[in-house]
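[stage:ingest] chain + small molecule (magnesium ion)
[stage:ingest] validated
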Amino acid sequence: MGFWDAAGAGEAPHAHGDLPSLPSLCSRLVDEGERCFEHASSVGTRLAPGQPWTVLGCHAGLREIAVPIERDGVTVGALLIGGFRETGAVPIGDGVTSAAWDATPMLDAGQVALLGEMAAAVAADVALALAELTAPPPSPVRQRYDAIIGGSPKMQELYTLLDRVVRSESTVLIQGENGTGKELVARAIHNGSDRRDRRFVVTNCSAFNDNLLDSELFGHKRGAFTGAVADKPGLFEVADTGTFFLDEIGDMSPTLQVKVLRVLQEGTFNRVGDTETRKVDVRIIAATNRDLRAMVARGQFREDLYYRINVINLMLPALRERREDIPLLLGFFLDRQRRGGKGKRLADDCVARMTSYPWPGNVRELENEVERLVVLSGDDPVIEEDLLSTRIRHHSAPIVEEAVPMSSLPDAVEALERRMIVDALRRNRWNKTRASSDLKVSRRNLIRLVQKYGIEPPAAR
Ligand SMILES: Nc1ncnc2c1ncn2[C@@H]1O[C@H](COP(=O)(O)OP(=O)(O)OP(=O)(O)O)[C@@H](O)[C@H]1O
Ligand SMILES: [Mg+2]
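[stage:predict] done
[stage:export] tokens:
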């Protein structure tokens, strides 16, 4: 065969002197993408529907197979296999000597098709290698607030709010699902505030029964209850002049809610069993993953306390609302797992799966998954997708789309088919070879269906 050429932009470096080159095909591919192939097919070459490769004819009558190399659905180069005759082809003009013509291999339609399929498979691999080589370096990790990672618009909004919150003395209510970083943010507020050199005290209001929490928060006087063998200061006193983080405040009983309200309003309280009123200066940051407003409406949480702690409200986004931060977080946690050893990398399809997974446990769940992957991958520098937890590996991202009115079974089947294809393509970053293998259909079949449903990748960024 004349030459194999996986080419990027620019002239194809054709090696065979007798073969006509296809002038600037590659640069045209890069500039015009698929349109060039369509154009080529309209000037006497073939591109069957759903077929990724084209047979191009040159001015001398020789043939060349061309396959676009795609990245995120955009043609970035081409793989060319050229310099063969097809059964029935005749030399044209004097573009090639008769000795060279006779010396080039003669292929029948079946052999051309086979070569085309092989070229398509190689082009898909080249595309993958290209994607790995040219993956942009992770954007710099934002360290403005301790270890809070994320550059998404939702996190930027949070940072803007935090910038103001740290300068104030206000009470803050942090809300968010499990594992969204409520405690992390509370610490960041303390560390950014004028109280940073004072204590940051944490208590989890759901971890104690009412009496114990009372004594834990406010302390007790000797003999106040069985076991109270000595006077004991509570955490409000420990936190004096510092910050007190009241976690899971939604789980606090109404009785204690009253006592906390009093500290907030007057800065005063009494130890359990003690008549002496004490005064403290504590900044309170409260957190909950419960819907406090709804609890107020149901009479389960005091309205006055709700308004007193909700002076500033920080609603932390769930990880699925800021998927663009997932690669950043993965890099951050991989780095943290390094512990002086050599760094590891996640394979592209592994990152793609993790990005499309909804993470019900949010950042904590993601952090644990990275730790698990690092352990399981042993000495391998690259972590492959098959090590992922089953729930992540087998999750198919739901597609948010308009409901299709489905009047018949064929309509419903088509709607499902379309959804599954879009889903597989997204998961595989629009790589059709991988998507087709996920869907257990041939690549050719997938391309036919993509055309049938007019599915298009998002515009290249
Ligand atoms: N934005 C983030 N950047 C880096 N790490 C994060 C981020 N958010 C959370 N984490 C990490 O995820 C884990 C859980 O965070 P944290 O304990 O603050 O969440 P939480 O909202 O208080 O969870 P829970 O509701 O279960 O109490 C921690 O290890 C924390 O460091
Ligand atoms: Mg917490």
